[in-house]
Backbone:
């Protein structure tokens, strides 16, 4: 059975789906299941070839991961502007207390963020990581978030980590 191309599916391929089963074949033919921190680098450099079995309801399909960068973007190893909506730059962020917040002096508060730099948030985890690195913000990625670019994005954050 010839493996299908994951790259041909673009963003449709579920690189980060838990049920996906990765198979790595090293240059010497050694086969390992699953991935580790070095998988991307080995696949990118050609030291190994990476495959994935995508289980379906009736049949599973074998794919070759022929674009390791897509794999890395989906796993947050490479910044992905398309998936996250976020440019890899220093964001210009304003925030205000969300109108729903009843305990404005709590350790975690719900805020409404406005990104004046023109970014949108499609991946709160990626935004939280950037804001932690840039400004020390501690955004609760397990909490609910949402909203729109026009009204602001609401999210939970540790109050004392927020800069004005
Ligand atoms: Zn930005």
Residues:
């Amino acid at each position: 059975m010839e493996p299908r191309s994951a790259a041909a599916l673009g963003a449709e391929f579920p690189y980060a789906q838990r049920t996906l089963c990765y198979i790595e074949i090293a240059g010497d033919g050694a086969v390992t299941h699953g991935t580790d921190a070095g998988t991307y680098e080995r696949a990118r450099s050609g030291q190994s070839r990476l495959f994935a079995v995508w289980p379906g309801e009736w049949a599973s399909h074998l794919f070759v991961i022929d674009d390791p960068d897509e794999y890395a973007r989906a796993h947050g190893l490479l910044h992905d502007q398309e998936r996250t909506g976020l440019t890899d730059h220093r964001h210009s962020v304003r925030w205000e207390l969300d109108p729903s917040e009843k305990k404005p002096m709590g350790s975690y508060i719900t805020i409404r963020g406005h990104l004046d730099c023109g970014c949108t948030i499609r991946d709160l985890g990626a935004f939280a990581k950037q804001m932690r690195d840039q400004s020390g913000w501690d955004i609760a990625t397990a909490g609910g978030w949402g909203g729109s670019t026009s009204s602001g994005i609401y999210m939970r954050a540790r109050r004392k980590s927020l800069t004005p």
